[in-house]
């Protein structure tokens, strides 16, 4: 008993979406963390991300659930990176 090809394609696409969400969260957390550490700012990566997201919002013509969920994951990663830097600075870590 084999599964229909359509079911397998949908399952692969769902797996790709889940992996993309995690990957974008980690990617933007890392980029935000490094930018915060180098530039000694807390929320600059968030402002940059929101600016790029606003630019893309007005340039793209159609959005899908996958697009929005991946962008929200990147936004969450950027916010988490800023929060982490802020917490480390509050606890007394001087290099951050």
Summarize the entry for a quick read.
The protein has 96 residues and is mainly α. The protein has helices at residues 5-39, 44-59, 65-90.
Order of helices and strands: HHH
**Tally of separate helices:** 3
The low-pLDDT segments are none
Question: Rg, please?
Answer: 17 Å
Give me the secondary-structure category: mainly alpha
Mean pLDDT: 85
Main sheet, how many strands, which sense, barrel?
none
End-to-end C-alpha gap: 57 Å
What is the total tally of β strands?
Answer: 0
How many structural domains can be distinguished in the coordinates? Answer: 1
Relative helix content? over 70%
Taken as a percent bin, the fraction of beta residues is under 5%
Global morphology: flat
Transmembrane segments: 12-35, 42-62, 68-85
Keywords: Membrane, Transmembrane, Transmembrane helix
Pfam family, one: YuiB
Protein name: Putative membrane protein
Written description of the protein model:
The protein has 96 residues and is an all-alpha fold. It has one domain. 80% of the residues lie in helices and 0% in strands. The chain has 3 helices and no strands. The mean pLDDT is 85.
Q: Which terms would index this structure?
A:
membrane, 80% helix, 0% strand, transmembrane helix, single chain, 96 residues, Putative membrane protein, transmembrane, mainly alpha, 3 helices
Summarize the helices and strands and which ones pair or pack.
Blueprint: H1 5-39, H2 44-59, H3 65-90
Helix pairs in contact: 1-3, 2-3
């Amino acid at each position: 008993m084999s599964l229909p090809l359509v079911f397998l394609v949908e399952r692969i696409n769902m797996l790709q979406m889940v992996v993309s969400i995690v990957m974008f969260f980690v990617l933007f957390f890392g980029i935000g963390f490094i930018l915060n550490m180098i530039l000694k700012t807390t929320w600059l990566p968030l402002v940059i991300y929101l600016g790029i997201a606003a630019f893309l919002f007005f340039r793209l013509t159609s959005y899908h659930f996958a697009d929005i969920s991946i962008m929200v994951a990147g936004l969450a990663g950027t916010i988490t990176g800023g929060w982490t830097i802020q917490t480390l600075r509050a606890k007394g870590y001087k290099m951050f």
